[in-house]
Amino acid sequence: MSVQTTYDKGELRIALNGEIDHHSAKTAMNEISDAIDQKLPRNCVLDLMGVNFTDSSGIAVLLRTQKKIHELDGEFSVENVRAQPSKVFKAANVGIMVAIKEYK
CATH: 3.40.50.1000, 3.20.20.450, 3.30.450.40, 3.30.750.24. Which one for 2-102? Predict the structure, then answer.
């Protein structure tokens, strides 16, 4: 799992690449938290184009990132969600809590 961040004009974009499972989620969340703490963004976009697999750990990453951004009164969204992660998020009704755009 790799985490790449870019920051421009108050927006933090976080691209995840690889599989999100119990072990990689912990590392990813630490890196995401560090980036948010350093930049204090008004908006945060989590780009999952590079994620082909997630288990319930991916749900935790989304919700923890959203919580951290909302604590800053920022906006949070998720983009480019591929088929398998989308199924996991839909099964857990995560779309009700997080703005999710599937990969087309």
Answer: 3.30.750.24
